[in-house]
Write a structure and sequence with these properties.
Blueprint (H helix, E strand, L loop, with lengths): L7 E2 L11 H10 L5 H21 L5 E3 L7 H8 L16 H9 L22 E3 L6 E3 L2 E2 L11 H11 L4 E6 L1 H7 L1 E2 L10 H18 L3 E5 L9 H17 L4 E5 L9 H6 L4 E5 L6 H8 L5 E7 L9 H14 L5 E5 L18 H4 L5 H17 L5 H16 L6 H8 L12 H12 L16 H11 L5 H22 L16 H4 L3 E4 L6 E4 L2 E3 L3 E7 L6 H8 L8 E4 L1 H6 L2 E2 L5 H22 L3 E5 L14 H16 L7 E6 L8 H7 L3 E4 L10 H6 L4 E4 L12 H12 L20 H24 L1
Parallel strand pairs: 1-12, 2-6, 5-7, 6-8, 8-9, 9-10, 10-11, 11-12, 16-18, 17-19, 19-20, 20-21, 21-22
Antiparallel strand pairs: 3-4, 13-16, 14-15
Helix pairs in contact: 1-2, 5-7, 7-8, 11-13, 15-22, 17-18, 22-23, 23-24, 26-27
C-alpha cells in the first residue's frame, strides 16, 4: 500500500448529542420555554462537537449537513422549496415554525407572531419508515405542477460553519432521484420522476455554491439504488448525474448506496459519471467481487465495512481478510474505509454504559467505537496489521468470547423450537365462527371505541420511575403510585364512554424494553439512545442470547385494571416481529430463529392472560412491514416466517378470546395477503395522515376481519374536532363495512400530553356516537 493514509468516512453520525441535548432543546422550544436563537445555538454546538470528535478519532472524510433538527428528508423538501400551500409559505427564508408545522402539525389559530409564513391549524406531513430501519422520515408532498427553488442553503451553511472551525468536510445531500422516489403525489396520480427536470436546477445551484465555497467532494446519497428500480428511475439517475457532471465539472461526487446490494442496478450505478461509489459490505458482502470486477479503476471505492445499523464489535481481522483481494488489486489512492451506512442508527458511545456487564460490554461498539474501528482498519491497510495488533487481538478475543459464552446458548430453548407443530400455528375455528362467539361474549355497540394502549407518560410518571430506579422511592410507594395512575385512567375512560379500556401502561418504559427486561437473552442500556423521529428517541434492547420467558410479565397489572371496571380491558403485548425489528439483534443466528424464540415466550404470556380472564389480548406488530427485505424477490421468505411467528404467539387461545394487533404507518397493498394470513380478529392501523387511503388495500382485498383505522394523528399535538374525525370515519365507511369498523387513535398516546389527549378522545367518542346515529338513521 501507499504511505498515504486510507481515507476514513462515517457517511453521517448521530445528531442527538451524548446526553440527548437535541431532544431537550427541541421540547423546550416547542413548549415555549426557550427561544429560536437558543435552539439554534444548541444545534450549532452539537455539530461542532461532532465534527471535532470525528477528526480526533481519525475520520478524514467528515460529513456535514448530516445534522437535522428533525429529519433529513424534511430538510431536503425545505431545501428545494417543496412546501405544500397549506403551510402558508410564500417564498424566501422558511420560518422555523413552518418547518416544525410540516413535521408536527400546528394547532394555533393565531400565535400573534405576525409572520405570514407561520402556518396555523394544519396537519403534519405523512410519516413513514426510512427503508427497512426504525427511523421515520417525513414524506414530501409534490404536485404535478410543482415548482422548486433553493429555499434553504443549509448544506452550504454547515460546510462554512465547519470550515470556520478549521475542519474541511464532505457535505451530504439526499439525491434527487431518491428524494422523488420517496415522495408522494399530493393529488391524483402522476410519475414523480417527471419532476426531475424541474428539481435539477436547484441541486445544480447548490452544488455550484458548495464548489465555489471550496468543497472538493460532495456525498450524494442514492439508497434507492438498492431497491427494485423501474426503467424511468434508472434513466432519471443517468440524467441527473450527467447534468451534475456538465454543470459543476470540478466537483467530485461520492455516490452513496446502503442497506443492501446494488444487484441488477450495478451496471447503471457504474455507468454514472461520478468520482466515487460507496457500497454496503455488511448487508451485502457478496457484491464486493462484482463491483471490483466491473468498476473502472478510476473510481474511488468506499467500502462499507463497519456495521452502521447494529452494535456488535467488528472482527477486524475477518474484515481485513474480506477486503484483502480488492486492496491488493485496486489503486491504493482509490480506496476509502467507511461505515456501511450513516451511524445515525446506532447509539453514541458505549463508554457511557457504566452499568453493563463487562463481558457483554466488550462485545459492543457504538458510534464512537465504530469510528475507532474504521481508523484501525485504515492504519492496518496503510501501515500493516502489526501497527494495530492490539486492536485486532482485542476484537478477535471479543468475537471468540461471544461464540463460546454460556450465557448465549440455552438448550431448553432449542428444544422448544424443535417441537413446534402445525397445530400451534392455527386458531381452532375460522374468523366467521370466532366473531359470533366474541360478539356474544363482549356485547359491544356498533363502531366500538378504544385506544391503542398507552396513555401519557407525564413528568410525574417519569420522575417516579427514575426515583424508583435510583432507589429513592421504595417498591411499595412506586407500586402505590402506579396503581393510582392506573385507577385514574380506568375511571376517566369510563367517564368519557370508551367501550374497550386499556390500563395505560404507566409501569412500562417502552413497548419493547419493558418486555425485553423480563425475558432472558436481552440486555439493556442506560444511555444508548437512538433517534426514531424528531425528539422521539428509543433505547433498543440488545438480544445477545437465546430468548425465553422466566415469569409472567403483564398479568398482574392487567388483573388489577380489570378489577376496577366491568368493561373489557385489553391485555397489551408487543409482538415477536416488532420486538425483533426494534432491537439490536444477535448476528450469529438467522433472524427468523430469534423471532421464533420470542414468539414462544409471548405465546406463554398470552396463555397466562387468557387464564387470568382476559377476553381481549392485543399483540402489537407495529414493525412487521418495516422488516420487509428491500427487494421484492425476498419478501415471501420474510413474510412466511413473520406471519408464522405472529400465529405461533396468538393461536393458543379459545375462539371466544379476541386477538387484536396494531400496525404503524405502512403501505398495505403489497402485503395484504400476509396481513390477512395473520388472522387477527381486529387490526388497528395508522390512517389519519393518509386520509384513510391506506384502507383501499383492505377494500380491494375484501379483508374479512375487523379494522380500527386511526381517526387522529397522535404524532402531532393538534386536537382534531368532532367534525374532522367524523369526516374520516365517513371516508372509512366508503371502504369497509360498518360491522368491521372500530374507532381509535392512530397509535399509542404515550408521547402526548393529557391536555391534548383528553379533548381528542372526548371528540373521538362523540364522533363514534354521531356515526351510530347516522348509521341507524340510514
Amino acid at each position: 500500500m501507499s504511505s498515504l493514509k486510507v481515507p476514513v468516512a462515517t457517511l453521517g453520525v448521530p445528531r442527538i448529542g451524548r446526553h440527548r441535548e437535541l431532544k431537550i432543546a427541541l421540547e423546550s422550544y416547542w413548549s415555549g420555554k426557550s427561544s429560536e436563537s437558543e435552539i439554534l445555538e444548541t444545534a450549532r454546538k452539537l455539530r461542532a462537537a461532532s465534527w471535532i470528535e470525528q477528526r480526533d478519532r481519525g475520520v478524514t472524510k467528515i460529513p456535514s449537513n448530516d445534522f437535522s433538527l428533525y429529519d433529513h428528508v424534511l430538510d431536503t423538501a425545505v431545501m428545494v422549496g417543496a412546501i405544500p400551500p397549506s403551510y402558508g409559505w410564500n417564498g424566501g427564508d422558511v420560518p422555523l415554525d413552518t418547518y416544525f408545522a410540516m413535521a408536527r402539525g400546528d394547532q394555533n389559530a393565531d400565535c400573534g407572531c405576525g409572520n405570514p409564513g407561520h402556518a396555523h391549524g394544519v396537519s403534519a406531513l405523512e410519516m413513514t419508515k426510512w427503508f427497512d430501519t426504525n427511523y421515520h422520515y417525513m414524506v414530501p408532498e409534490l404536485a404535478e405542477d410543482q415548482s422548486f427553488q433553493l429555499a434553504s442553503t443549509k448544506p452550504l451553511d454547515h460546510f462554512l460553519e465547519a470550515r470556520a472551525l478549521g475542519i474541511h468536510t464532505r457535505p451530504v445531500i439526499l439525491g434527487p432521484v431518491t428524494f422523488l422516489k420517496l415522495a408522494k403525489a399530493r393529488t391524483g396520480a402522476f410519475g414523480l420522476m417527471s419532476l426531475l427536470p424541474k428539481i435539477l436546477p436547484v441541486y445544480v445551484k447548490l452544488l455550484k455554491q458548495l464548489s465555489e465555497a471550496g468543497a472538493d467532494w460532495v456525498q450524494i446519497d442514492e439508497p434507492c439504488l438498492v431497491l427494485d428500480l423501474e426503467a424511468t428511475e434508472r434513466t432519471a439517475l443517468e440524467l441527473a448525474y450527467s447534468r451534475f457532471e456538465t454543470s459543476v465539472p470540478g466537483l467530485k461526487i461520492m455516490l452513496a448506496t446502503y442497506f443492501g446490494a446494488l444487484g441488477e442496478n450495478l451496471e447503471a450505478a457504474l455507468a454514472l459519471p461520478v468520482a466515487g461509489l460507496h457500497i454496503d459490505l455488511v448487508r451485502a458482502p457478496e457484491q464486493l467481487g462484482r463491483v471490483a470486477r466491473f468498476a473502472s479503476s478510476d473510481l474511488v471505492l468506499s467500502l462499507g465495512l463497519v456495521d452502521g445499523r447494529n452494535v456488535w464489535r467488528t472482527d477486524l481481522n475477518a474484515v481485513l481478510e474480506q477486503v484483502k483481494p480488492v486492496v491488493a488489486g485496486w489503486p491504493s489512492d482509490r480506496i476509502e474505509i467507511a461505515s456501511s451506512c450513516s451511524l445515525l442508527h446506532v447509539p453514541v458511545d458505549v463508554e457511557l454504559e457504566t452499568g453493563l456487564d463487562p463481558e457483554l460490554k466488550s462485545w459492543l461498539a457504538f458510534s464512537a467505537q465504530k469510528m475507532d474501528e474504521l481508523a484501525a482498519l485504515s492504519r492496518a491497510l496503510t501501515e500493516g496489521r502489526d501497527s494495530v495488533s492490539d486492536a485486532i487481538k482485542a476484537a478477535s478475543y471479543a468475537a471468540a468470547s461471544r461464540r463460546s459464552s454460556l450465557r448465549v446458548h440455552d438448550p431448553l430453548v432449542g428444544g422448544r423450537l424443535a417441537n413446534i407443530e402445525d397445530a400451534m400455528l392455527r386458531r381452532t375455528g375460522p374468523f366467521a365462527a370466532r366473531r359470533k362467539l366474541q360478539a356474544r361474549q363482549l356485547d359491544l355497540p356498533a363502531f366500538p371505541t378504544t385506544t391503542i394502549g398507552s396513555f401519557p407518560q407525564t413528568a410525574d410518571v417519569r420522575k417516579a420511575r427514575s426515583r424508583h430506579v435510583k432507589g429513592e422511592m421504595s417498591y411499595v410507594d412506586y407500586e402505590a403510585f402506579l396503581k393510582s395512575q392506573t385507577a385514574e385512567a380506568i375511571r376517566w375512560q369510563e367517564e368519557i364512554g370508551l367501550d374497550v379500556l386499556v390500563h395505560g401502561e404507566f409501569e412500562r418504559n417502552d413497548m419493547v424494553q419493558y418486555f425485553g427486561e423480563q425475558l432472558s437473552g436481552f440486555a439493556f442500556t442506560q444511555h444508548a439512545w437512538v433517534q426514531s423521529y424528531g425528539s422521539r428517541y428509543v433505547r433498543p434492547p440488545i438480544i445477545y442470547g437465546d430468548v425465553s420467558r422466566p415469569n409472567p410479565m403483564t398479568v398482574r397489572w392487567w388483573r388489577y385494571a380489570q378489577s376496577l371496571t366491568g368493561r373489557p380491558v385489553k391485555g397489551m403485548l408487543t409482538g415477536p416481529v416488532t420486538i425483533l425489528n426494534w432491537s439490536f439483534v444477535r448476528d450469529d443466528l438467522p433472524r427468523s430463529t430469534v423471532c421464533r424464540q420470542i414468539a414462544l415466550a409471548i405465546r406463554d404470556e398470552v396463555a397466562d392472560l387468557e387464564k387470568a380472564g382476559a377476553k381481549m389480548i392485543q399483540i402489537d406488530e407495529a414493525a412487521l412491514r418495516e422488516g420487509l427485505p428491500l427487494r421484492k424477490s425476498d419478501w415471501s421468505t420474510y413474510l412466511a416466517w413473520a406471519v408464522e411467528c405472529f400465529r405461533l404467539c396468538s393461536s393458543g387461545v379459545a375462539d371466544a378470546t379476541q386477538i387484536h394487533t396494531h400496525m404503524c404507518y405502512s403501505e398495505f397493498n403489497d402485503i395484504i395477503d400476509a396481513i390477512a394470513a395473520m388472522d387477527a380478529d381486529v387490526i388497528s392501523i395508522e390512517t389519519s395522515r393518509s386520509k384513510m387511503e391506506l384502507l383501499d388495500a383492505f377494500r380491494s382485498f375484501k379483508y374479512p376481519n375487523e379494522i380500527g383505522p386511526g381517526v387522529y394523528d397522535i404524532h402531532s399535538p393538534r386536537v382534531p374536532d368532532v367534525a374532522e374525525m367524523t369526516d374520516l370515519l365517513s371516508l372509512a365507511r366508503q371502504r369497509i363495512d360498518d360491522d368491521q369498523l372500530w374507532v381509535n387513535p392512530d397509535c399509542g398516546l404515550k408521547t402526548r400530553k393529557w391536555e391534548e389527549v383528553r379533548p381528542a378522545l372526548v371528540n373521538m367518542v362523540a364522533a363514534a356516537r354521531e356515526l351510530r346515529k347516522v348509521a341507524k338513521a340510514a
